[in-house]
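Worked example (supplementary).
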Amino acid sequence: MMENAWLIPLFPLVSFVILLLFGKRLKEAGAYVGILMTLASLVFSILVLFERFSEPSYIQKFEWLKIGDVSLTAGFEVNQLNALMLFIVSLVSFLVHTYSKGYMHGDGRFPVFYAYLGLFTFAMLGLVISPNLLQTYMFWELVGLGSFLLIGFYFYKEEAKAAAKKAFIMTRIGDVGLFIGMILLFWKTGSFEYSEIFSAVEAGGISQTMITLTAILIFIGAVGKSGQFPLHTWLPDAMEGPTPVSALIHAATMVAAGVYLVATMFPLFAASKTALLTVATIGAFTAIFAASIGLVQTDIKRVLAYSTVSQLGYMMLALGSAGYVAGVFHLMTHAFFKALLFLAAGSVIHAVHTQNIEEMGGLWKKLKWTAPLFLIGTLAISGVPLLSGFFSKDEILVAAWEGGHPILFVLALIAAFMTAFYMFRLFFMVFTGEARGNQNHVHESPGSMTLPMLVLGVLAIISGYVNTPWFGSFLGDWLVDGNEKLGHGHMEGPIWIMIAATVVSLAGIYLAWLIYGKRSVSRNWLSGSGDTLHTILYNKYYVDEFYQMTVVAVTKGISYFLRFIDVFLVGGIVKGVVGFVQGLGATGSKLQNGQVQTYAAVAFVGLAILTVIFALTGGYLQ
Amino acid sequence: MNLGWALTLLVLFPLLGIVVLAFMPKTAEKSIKLVGFLATLPSLLLALAAYLHFKWGKDLADFAVTHDWIQFRGMNADEPYFSVNFELGLSGFQLILVVLTAVVATLAAIASKYVKKEWKGYYMLFLLLETGMLGVFTAENLILFFLFFEITLIPTFFLIGKWGYFEKEKAAYSFLIYNGLGSAVLLIVIMILFAKTGTTNIEILKSIMADPSAPLSGDLKLGLFIALLIAFGVKLPIFPLHSWMLKVHVQAPPAVVMIHSGILLKIGAYGLIRFGLGIFPEQFEKLATLLAILGVINLLYGAFLAFIQTDFKMVLAYSSISHMGIVLIGLAAMNEAGVQGAIFQVISHGLISALLFFLVGVLYERTDTSLIENLGGLAKGMPIAAGFLLAAAMASLGLPGMSGFVSEFMAFLGLFNELPWVAAVGTLGIILTAAYLLRAVLGMTFGQAHREFAGIMDLRGVEFIPVVVLTFLIVLIGVYPSVLSAPLQATLETIMLGLGG
Amino acid sequence: MSADTFQSINWSILTPEFIILGVIAILILLDLFMPKTLSRKILGWIGIAAILAALIFTLNMAGGPVRTILDNTFRVDSFAIAFKSLLLVGAALVMFLATSYETKAGLERYEAEFYYIFLSALLGAMVMTSSGDLITLYVGLELLSIPSYILAGMRKFDSKSNEAAMKYVISGGISSAIALFGMSYVYGIAGSTDLIEIASKLSMLADGQQAYLLGLAFLMIFVGLAFKISAAPFHMWAPDVYQGAPTPVTAFLSVVSKTAGFVIVIRVLLTVFGAAASNGPNSMPIIMNMQDYIAVIAGATMIIGNVVALKQSDIKRMFAYSSIAHAGYLLVAVTSLSANMFYSIWFYLLAYLLMNLGAFAVIQVVSEKSGSTKIADFAGLYRRSPVLAVAMGILLISLAGFPGTAGFIGKLNIFAGAFAGDPHYVLASVMIATTVVSYFYYFGVMTQMFFRPAEDESKFNLPFGIIIVLIVAVAGSILFGLMPNLALDFMNNHLDILNDFFGQ
Amino acid sequence: MSSIPASAFLALALILFCIGLYGALTKRNTVIVLISIELMLNAVNINLVTFSKYGAAPSIDGQVFALFAMAVAAAEAAVGLAILMALYQRKKTVHIDEMDEMKQ
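After joint prediction of all chains, the assembly is encoded as:
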């Protein structure tokens, strides 16, 4: 089966092509093409995953491009991480395809949406089976394209246009880091193949500085894709896309690609302490940074988006603390519960036609399926014991502690508290209390939307059990099998960590309940709207404004300066030369005054000058 | 097997079209356009046949053709005559350029359907231009190269000056004078080489130059190379010799810009590679750092300026400058990756800019504007055109899976090995490219519609041919770059041999 | 001179000159006795026939040995044949132009006069090519000049024409005096007027003082002759005279007269100064030392011609400056003094002859129609007469020196010479830079013809003579541009000019 | 006879030539200009005849040359005057500085 893994990405590609060519004729029936094709991918992925449990990794490649004597290859590889990712991606993609059939119903560009989804899924699946850095990079960019297209799906909205543009450019900044890192690695190791890079790193042929440099450059790529600080600003804006897209791309799969990349390149990172520390620090900082913003946002999707950024920071923290398994584990659980949350949020939006949580409230009764599923997701992400998020978060905290980063550990803990708080704030505001907006036409979503949520809900609960302190660390052991450098399958940590995690998450929930559920505490007790802290958080620490004032302004400034040069200097020189020639012509023309005696005089003067020169130089110009 | 006749025919076939057109009544618009289009086909078919010939493992040397042409009297009384032969030939590099030329020319002939007046003159000049371009890429000696090079100048002047937009005459003059200066410098180089060595055959010159006992001093060679750099720098164009091409891009009719941006600019790159790298490898090496810096300047300068343009054509014009910077970057690397990247960029940009300008033509035809703000929200009215526009922009900004990426990647790959810091600065261009292209393209296609697009047709009929063919080729090269790299192997090996390693 | 000596002289080598001379006499007589009402066109055709006959006889002599008569005052060598053929071809084409010239200023009354005065000028030019003596050279020169003065003033009732003639006479007189003054020193030092003898005497010159004097003489001769080829600093008459003279005469001045000018420049400079020792017997010839002076003049000529041409609004004045510029290009070939110099000059003159006469044919047609010689009169020519416009376009392209035309091959030849041996980088660069400048004004005419709308849409009737000239000019420009060896081989195979000068 | 050195004749010729040139370049009357040109040519003739007698290699050629020069000069003057006549009929002036209809 594994030798046919290359088919997995091809199915969605076929869907993309079919829908692009025949979308107009298929109309909404196009959804079936997409669903069927992703189902095929899912089935293949599951088969590959199960085969990989028992068989060794499989890699196959062929020559793609020859540069002199070096031949660059393309191909595919199935190892533990790839197989797992294949499964996650194709599963979430399949579910989102299904879900979208209901959600996008009635949209005029329905087939286009499915086509884009197909393209994205193709790219994402291609990314995870790439056997080398170059191919990874190529698909890396393609997923960016898919994301860009889907964010800008409502192209006629100015916000969507701006968001799409921003997403593309911000991630591209990161991509350039990856690009440079990749090329530097190539010249140091002579290959783009992961295996060869790692063996070269291991062999010690590369200086420590170069390892750190390349690792950090590659990490910059991950920062861009995974919305880590300081390149995080595009991700919340990306919520302008249709909600299923947010679930698929900006929660479960693409944004996790950064984590996946660091995980894939882990042996390189592991070789440099500095690089690891950088990853961990950025991750932890992002986790708390984004979480704090999430506390005050009022757009349901934006809260989720900041939560995503924060959770991705968690994963980075895990990887940076050498918690390979923890990172990947959280990636998986997060994919499920965050996709669930988004789909549920989409269902809510579908029902009430607004994204502002201030206008919601009291939906628990009206959305019989959505509300409980949303609660499951909220519990999972908050790290309430026995749900998936609890286990994976615990792993991360252990990794951070064991990795010797007490400060980062504390940060992570605070972030966990905040997460629980803002998620339940969201939950309470949306589903409990009085209806604050017009809810006349609210109705539960159709089955095609609730069923995928159901599947994810189940997974959000159970997926944590593949790697627990109690029932064995199956996932971890499998992931690191055959490669000790990735660390242990499960980290033994002090039990108080688990207790602490539970306590902070419950505390967060309790506080949220006090404020938004029971309303016994004023919403403004710490910092109300209009207060400095609130304003800063609400405006996301003014990072966007800061960029606008610095990077964008500088770029524009340089542009206008160069235009000045272009017009006045380059153009001026040209005008000067032309003017000089013209002036010469005018002078010559003026000399032609019609007086024949002048003409002869000129000739005579010419002769005289030549003669004088001849006389002075003793005869010859030498 | 000697196929020299085929190559000669390939180059001269468009002239046959001119003859046919000469006998047609000048009011027969439809049939003139048809004949103009058909006349480009034989060359295209022959070019494709030549590619297949190579694909099937046969020798490209089969296409070489040599005839006696001009015998000059020797410079000194006792010297024999100097011969300039009519020599055409194909190497892998030339082959792909010929194919590119034939393809773009045929597509531009289709795009010429928007020409509103004096079709007869237009197509005659157009076909003359095609012969010139095909000749440039197949000429095996410098004089013949120069002949064809200048032949491209005159029809282009008229095509711009007569069928262009508002400031067409100014643009035509700008084109003529800059390129005239460029070719003048080139002529000096050619004639000095000719006078010193008695030959203009490129291959022979290469071997003469490689010979240390050649009758040229190092300083002279360096001077000649710098002159060559200026000559082709005008064409490419290299900052600060670029201002003419902005005017041309904006003022010329779209079909001509397709040719101009797609092929004529590439003559500069071709010349730098074939003559600069080929004949003056040592001098090239000496100036490699300078070239790399120039390349980065081009790349960033074009990108920054493209960022603030209001006219989409200007964006594309500066983008061409920027992209030609990548050619320089690749060449300056002077290793396999870099040079191959540069050549890829030549082809890739040829296809992409042809596509973009065709779309510009389509838009202009329907909306009478190419100002970004006037076109906002175009995707609503013309979704297919907008889609292709976006695809072309993506190709241009180097999205993997399309040709732009492969070339950009290889060029940078090459330079990072030689001058990592310069290359690192250059990568800034990758970001800027994305920024200005998205700004422009999204500004045109996305967002609120600023105008009624009712009654405006989307792409239709034959308009699909150029768009689809070009997109296909762009994707083909992006996905399967071996279609280009295979014919290039031999060329690259020769160049690397010349560089001594 | 006894009858025997008279008969022993090989008069046959004078056949072409005799034909022209005879026809001049016949034309004068015919004009005298023909009824006044009869058109004089027929006389023009007779003239053309005579020129063609002379051409055939001249070409027939190609390939033979050097023949001289009358004490070497008249010689038929390869040089003479080569340039005489050029003159005859040019003259024939000018005659075609003249037969089609119908001006309102009333030339018809003097039409016959025009033909035989023109032929006299031609005769002078022919004599110049064959002279082996300073005296014949001078007489030939003046035989060319004096009828030219009259031709320029042919339109007797046109004040511009008169003024042109007057300016021409005065400039011409001063220039020939200067040149003659220089020649007199040459005679003084060498003691002979026979060029060959001068050469052999001067090559043994031992006195540095005399060499110095010869240098001065060189400058005087060169500047004096610069008048004939309209090179700086004696170029300023050209625009005024070209503008005022009737168009066929302008064509004649710019082509035939200039060719003759180069003939004499080359003859005198190369024979005399190419042999004269600069510093003791068998040392470097003076001309090698004077190369830089020629270069300066060549450079100045090219710059002035091309740059001032930019500012012209009158097509004939513009062509005057263009013709100055072309003289500059030709002087580059003279400067280089390379072995291919004769070939390049000859070929360039051939190309120049074709393209310039063709252009003047178009100018004549257009200006006759519009009654003025403004460049703006060419506006919309493409609409009015595509054939004329395209022909003019090709000729302009040739003048600008684009490949595929004879003008390019001509420049190529000159370049090759300039870079051979001791290379003249600066001069060649000036040449090429000014060539680019010339694009401005040549393409300015193109702009008018092809881009601008016409003010009056009337069509043209092309007279037979014009058609002939255009066909010859356009076909020749392209043919010699693509296959220059058609002409070069004629030189290579039949004529060995080098031998004429350096063979002894 | 030989008491006068050759250089004196040459100097005379040179002076004459310069006078002629000066006249040709400065006089307003066209007739005087034409006469000045004749002066220049006569200066040449003096040179030629001097060289013919006292030159480095005296020969008769110089005198022959002078004769030709005189004849030609006469013809030239005749043509010049004829043209001047025609011009005078048009413009009613012989001032050379008024002949500037064509310029620039």
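Two points are worth noting when inspecting this output. DSSP finds 24 helices and four strands in chain A. Chain A has a mean pLDDT of 86.
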